[in-house]
Design a protein that fits this description.
Number of domains of chain A: 2
Strand content of chain B: 15-25%
Number of helices of chain A: 13
Bound molecules: thiamine diphosphate, magnesium ion
Number of helices of chain B: 12
Strand content of chain A: 5-15%
CATH architecture of the largest domain in chain A: 3-Layer(aba) Sandwich
Largest sheet of chain A: 5 strands, parallel
Radius of gyration of chain B: 20 Å
Oligomer: heterodimer
EC number (chain B): 1.2.4.4
Order of helices and strands of chain A: HHHEHHHHEHEEEEHEHHHH
CATH superfamily of the largest domain in chain A: Thiamin diphosphate (ThDP)-binding fold, Pyr/PP domains
GO molecular function (chain B): branched-chain 2-oxo acid dehydrogenase activity; magnesium ion binding
InterPro entries (chain B): THDP-binding, Transketo_C/PFOR_II, Transketolase-like_Pyr-bd, Transketolase_C
CATH class of the largest domain in chain A: Alpha Beta
Strand order of the largest sheet of chain B: 3-2-4-5-7-6-12
Structural class of chain A: alpha/beta
Organism (chain B): Spongiactinospora gelatinilytica
Shape of chain B: globular
Strand order of the largest sheet of chain A: 1-2-3-7-6
CATH superfamily of the largest domain in chain B: Thiamin diphosphate (ThDP)-binding fold, Pyr/PP domains
Keywords (chain B): Oxidoreductase
Structural class of chain B: alpha/beta
Radius of gyration of chain A: 22 Å
Largest sheet of chain B: 7 strands, mixed
CATH topology of the largest domain in chain A: Rossmann fold
Chain lengths: ~375, ~325
């Protein structure tokens, strides 16, 4: 293999800086160690993110969310993917990226709007530079390539980072995105969170390649793989990837090995396709515990820090509970808004049909109330 | 009692038992048995070669089915949800639909594409589309949708045996509907609509998820003195003009009910066919009750979007019983 092709291949083993227990792993790395400030921010965001995730799961059980895909266990990727970006950079999430969006600073209630069921996207994508959460798998990867290319054309120096799952790498759009990004040198980072399952289907059914990071070489995209439950390694590799993109060298592909500890969503039953033993193995590689141990050893994390951040997480959860337990204001007529820049005559007519229906319903309700 | 989901499962199982060439594949159809459990137990019973998970790619799934059908198999593939079949549209429109025609009849594609569709289950975006019109508009595809437990079994068996490709649309709202059926059996062939309720004053035409709503409306309408006939199309393509025409010629009035956005939808086709064939029998324009022409709304708003009993009853009021012009379109000017 030529040196050029060789350079596109990922490391032989997933990059890791920490052992499963959080001690320093042996080996040399092509990626610099992140600074303690970034690691502390990641720790704090993971603690808050995990609490948010648990609260969202609880709210789903109480019927407050239509559905919730948990990222419990994947916090290093959720948090890392956002913290390596600057404010102006763009983030392209899937449905699983709620914790990433909270890390980005979006109001948690706005993050959950889609899943609660009162809007398709609850936050302002332009304000946050975050695309709407994307459910049709891998389709957003092409958008990220296009947006990154647009930023390069305009010369803003911004990059885009797009998340996809292991399953989504089988979709054609993922491959088209890698190819477009490489051909047009779009400053985009593809982050594959390989949590080993696409609902019930294990990784072996998605690929016969040695690693999903090998998908890059055929398109001329340099790739790396990383222990996705090692927050130090995730931040190191993603920082390199973003720098690569920002410096004008084009796209970069990162495969992070991780695991979702919960079912696919609350509607799924993981016991139908995997064992508890397997999950237990991954539970022991907890990204939060690993980073805590690393930071404490170096004196970068104190009891006061953990106490303060736990309190912050509890506060966020309490606020989320309170606000999610209130029924949202619904505006049924709003469904006719923004279908086009201005409503067509037909939509105006249909809106009127619903308006008349709603006022008749209201009048009937009031009449009934007056009787009782 | 048996649910529609179980009837579909039984149809797949019976077809697999009868014909070794029948294979089932798609996303999560193996160990999980499909997200709606329609393929539950098939891998365990018939083996991994007969019912299997594929890589996650709808275009791949349908294209692979085309190839396997050319190679002598009868693939039955599952699209996980309506909107997730769109990546396969290229394969469906350019190959599944056209291969028989392009090969002057030499290569037929006896394959079935199962698609759970429609709303009413509180699903978030991309999980509630009524996509039947895309397929019905594509010559070469048969498009079928059951409204009853018995039909779920019968139509799926017909679909698997059919020499042509069939888009089999499963109303997910009805997956858990139940019926007391002694023995699941095959009933009518494709192209026969069913009169689910006989009536004399007007004909309600519906299919799939809208049939129960139409029947409920017919019951409610008796209070207002309407005796409604309810037709369940069963197969959108091939279309049963004979049953529909005979009914409307008798009742003189017709309302078409469907969840999909009305504009350029299947309901428009039905209305057009009825007025072309029944003009002299019609005492009122053929009206439609459909979803609005908006992207499927979020779960908390979907009940405002879907055709409801009330909205259908309101529409009956516009069927000119007292021979007054319909005021709804007055703003358009001229005389209605
Ligand atoms: C085009 C498309 N097909 C099917 C689905 C249904 N679906 C939702 S999530 C999912 C599995 C995705 O797995 P993966 O990409 O590994 O992401 P994960 O959920 O594990 O984060 C499937 C099949 C979809 N959303 N979009
Ligand atoms: Mg996955």
């Amino acid at each position: 293999m030529t040196g050029l092709a060789q350079a596109l291949l990922p490391s032989a083993e997933p990059v890791r800086f920490l052992t499963d227990e959080g001690a320093v792993a042996k080996g040399r790395h092509r990626h610099p160690v992140p600074d303690p400030g970034l690691l502390r921010r990641a720790y704090r965001a993971m603690v808050v993110g995990r609490r948010f995730d648990a609260q969202a799961t609880a709210l789903t059980k109480q019927g407050r969310l239509a559905v919730y895909p948990s990222s419990h266990g994947q916090e290093a990727c959720q948090v890392g993917s956002v913290l390596v970006l600057s404010e102006g950079d763009w983030f392209f999430p899937t449905y699983r990226e709620s914790v990433a969006l909270v890390t980005r600073g979006i109001d948690p209630v706005e993050v959950l709007s889609l899943l609660r069921g009162d809007a398709h996207c609850g936050y302002d994508p332009v304000r946050h530079h975050v695309a709407p959460q994307c459910t049709p798998l891998a389709t957003q990867s092409v958008h990220a390539a296009g947006l990154a290319y647009a930023e390069r054309r305009v010369g803003t120096g911004r990059v885009a980072l797009v998340c996809v799952g292991d399953g989504a790498t089988s979709e054609g759009d993922f491959h088209e995105a890698l190819n477009f990004a490489a051909v047009f040198k779009a400053p985009v980072v593809f982050l594959v969170q390989n949590n080993h399952y696409a609902i019930s289907v294990p990784l072996e059914r998605q690929t016969a390649a040695p690693s999903l990071a090998y998908k890059g070489i055929g398109y001329g995209v340099p790739s790396e793989r990383v222990d996705g439950n090692d927050p130090v390694a995730v931040l190191a590799v993603l920082t390199s990837a973003v720098e690569h993109a920002r410096s004008g060298q084009g796209p970069y592909l990162v495969e992070a090995h991780t695991y979702r500890l919960e079912s696919h969503t609350n509607a799924d039953d993981a016991s139908r396709y995997r064992t508890d033993d397997e999950a237990e193995k991954w539970r022991r590689r907890d990204p939060i515990a690993r980073l805590a141990r690393y930071l404490r050893r170096r004196g970068h994390l104190t009891d006061a820090d953990t106490a303060a951040w736990s309190a912050e997480a509890e506060e966020l959860a309490a606020d989320l509970r309170a606000r999610m337990n209130a029924d949202p204001e619904l505006a049924p007529l709003g469904m006719f808004d923004h279908v086009y820049s201005a409503p067509t005559p037909q939509l105006t007519e249909q809106r009127e049909v619903l308006r008349v229906e709603l006022s008749a319903e209201r009048a009937a309700d009031e009449a009934e109330e007056a009787l009782t | 009692m048996i649910t529609m989901a179980q009837a579909l499962n039984a149809a797949l199982g019976d077809a697999m038992a009868e014909d070794e060439q029948v294979v089932v594949f798609g996303e999560d159809v193996g160990a999980l048995g499909g997200v709606f459990r329609i393929t539950d137990g098939l891998t365990a019973k018939y083996g991994e070669d007969r019912c299997f998970d594929t890589p996650l790619a709808e275009s791949g799934i349908v294209g692979f089915a085309v190839g396997m059908a050319m190679g002598g198999f009868r693939p039955v593939v599952e699209m996980q949800f309506d909107a997730f079949a769109y990546p396969a549209f290229e394969q469906i429109a350019s190959h599944v639909a056209k291969t028989r025609n392009r090969t002057r009849g030499r290569v037929g594609l006896p394959l079935v594409i199962r698609i759970p569709y429609g709303g009413g289950i509180g699903g978030v975006e991309h999980h509630c589309d009524s996509s039947e019109a895309y397929y019905a508009h594509t010559p070469g595809l048969k498009v079928v949708t059951p409204a009853t437990v018995q039909d779920a079994y019968s139509l799926l068996r017909e679909a698997i045996d059919d020499p042509d490709p069939v888009v089999f649309m499963e109303p997910k709202k009805l997956y858990w509907s139940k019926a007391d059926i002694g023995r699941l059996a095959r009933t009518e062939p494709f192209g026969r609509a069913a009169v689910r309720r006989a009536g004399s004053d007007a004909t309600l035409i519906a299919y799939g998820p809208s049939v129960p709503v139409a029947l409920e409306t017919a019951e409610a309408a008796t209070q207002e003195g309407w005796d409604l006939e309810v037709i369940d199309l069963r197969t959108i393509v091939p279309f049963d003009d004979a049953t529909v025409t005979a009914s409307v010629r008798r009742t003189g009035r017709c309302v078409v009910v469907g969840e999909a956005a009305g504009f350029a939808g299947v309901g428009a086709e039905i209305a057009a066919r009825v007025q072309e064939r029944c003009f002299h029998s019609l005492a009122a324009p053929v009206l439609r009750v459909t979803g609005f022409d908006v992207p499927y709304p979020p779960p908390m708003l979907e009940h405002h979007h879907l055709p409801s009993v009330d909205r259908i009853l309101d529409t009956l009021d516009r069927l000119q019983r007292d021979d007054l012009p319909d005021t709804r379109f007055l703003a358009l000017g001229g005389a209605a």
